[in-house]
């Protein structure tokens, strides 16, 4: 009980003033938890505010077009979360009459809702003693109890979940879950934790054994794959371009992009024009230039995208063209969005130059 009560007392004094902390609405709690997966609070907060303004209820979100949802999500990454969010909103609105399941087991059945999110919603909204386990919780528990089992191993995931569940009480489970997450984020930080002023210090095994910097233990990540992306940014004299939805089940599904030619290594302009996709797309009178002189390395969790943006100026386009001024209407990846800002700023007077 020392651990449980101490964290709740700490939270009552140190908790952050966040909009989803002022409600027990399952819709808003669900929205915040999905957004904050693998995302810092400071980054997720503006998106939460945008979404709740655009979609005040689950019915509003369910009735939105997917492209509208993806556009608002743009910049948060892991776009499968946004697609699952939209799918689940439609399911809750249309199949459950807008009422979220009121238990951990029921919430787990929703698409995109895993153990952590189900535990958070169940405890905060319905006072069910379901313990959350995320990166912050792993860190606090591993240090306090001195556990060196890798947190991303099958054994570790099971061990930490069982430990977390054994600690949580019937009394204020939602507040406790928020307390331990905040404590890990603000106090028991990955680097430079505040051990000298820690309310748990007297019983912390890692502090006693001088192992704070060694815990938690994590198995090394899998090898990162390197991919080579060549975006063909076609621009005509009347400022039209080619911009279409990315198909398939890979990264950025449903987002819009310029024609993409993926190669096995970095290529030059002379090599680009020999690519079959380029030949089928671009007429002979094209003027080609590389916009980014240095390759852009866009890092994702398991892959690095070595990217070049080739600006191709032509008199006319093969295929369905759109006006350059319309691009902002479409949801895009951060990679494309950053290019658009840079290119427009560089060529603010005439895009064709």
Shape: elongated
Give me the CATH architecture of the largest domain, please. Answer: Orthogonal Bundle
What is the total tally of β strands? 9
Content of β-strand: 5-15%
Instruction: Give the low-confidence spans.
Output: none
**Structural class estimated from helices and strands:** alpha+beta
Tally of separate helices: 15
Radius of gyration: 24 Å
Please give the share of residues in helix. Answer: 40-55%
At the third CATH level, what is the topology name of the largest domain? Endonuclease III, domain 1
The averaged pLDDT comes out at 92
Keywords: 4Fe-4S, DNA damage, DNA repair, Glycosidase, Hydrolase, Iron, Iron-sulfur, Metal-binding
Cofactor: [4Fe-4S] cluster
Catalytic activity: Hydrolyzes free adenine bases from 7,8-dihydro-8-oxoguanine:adenine mismatched double-stranded DNA, leaving an apurinic site
Enzyme class: hydrolase
């Amino acid at each position: 009980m020392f651990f449980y009560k101490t964290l709740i007392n700490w939270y009552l004094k140190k908790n952050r003033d966040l909009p989803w902390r002022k409600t027990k609405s399952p819709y808003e709690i669900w929205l915040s938890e999905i957004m904050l997966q693998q995302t810092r609070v400071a980054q997720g907060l503006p998106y939460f505010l945008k979404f709740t303004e655009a979609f005040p209820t689950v019915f509003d979100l369910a009735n939105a077009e997917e492209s509208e949802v993806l556009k608002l999500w743009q910049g948060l990454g892991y776009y499968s979360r946004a697609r699952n969010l939209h799918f689940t909103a439609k399911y809750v609105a249309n199949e459950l009459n807008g009422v979220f399941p009121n238990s951990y087991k029921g919430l787990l059945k929703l698409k995109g809702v895993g153990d952590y999110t189900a535990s958070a919603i169940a405890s905060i909204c319905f006072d069910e003693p379901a313990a959350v386990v995320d990166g912050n919780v792993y860190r606090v528990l591993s240090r306090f109890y001195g556990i060196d089992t890798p947190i991303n191993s099958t054994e570790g995931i099971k061990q930490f979940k069982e430990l977390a569940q054994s600690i949580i009480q019937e009394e204020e489970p939602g507040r406790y879950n928020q307390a331990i997450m905040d404590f890990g984020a603000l106090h028991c930080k990955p680097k430079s934790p505040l051990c000298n002023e820690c309310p748990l210090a007297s019983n912390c095994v890692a502090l006693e054994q001088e192992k704070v910097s060694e815990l938690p233990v994590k198995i090394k990540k899998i090898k990162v794959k390197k991919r080579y992306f060549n975006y063909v940014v076609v621009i005509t004299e009347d400022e039209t371009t080619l911009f279409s939805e990315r198909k398939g089940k890979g990264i950025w599904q449903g987002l819009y992009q310029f024609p993409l030619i993926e190669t096995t290594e970095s290529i030059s302009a002379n090599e680009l024009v020999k690519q079959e996709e380029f030949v089928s797309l671009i007429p002979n009178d094209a003027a080609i230039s590389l916009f980014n002189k240095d390759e852009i390395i866009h890092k994702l969790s398991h892959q690095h995208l070595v990217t070049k943006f080739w600006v191709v100026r032509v008199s006319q386009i093969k295929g369905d063209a759109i006006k350059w001024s319309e691009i902002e209407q479409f949801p895009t990846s951060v990679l494309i969005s950053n290019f658009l800002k840079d290119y427009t700023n560089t060529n603010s007077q005439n895009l064709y130059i």
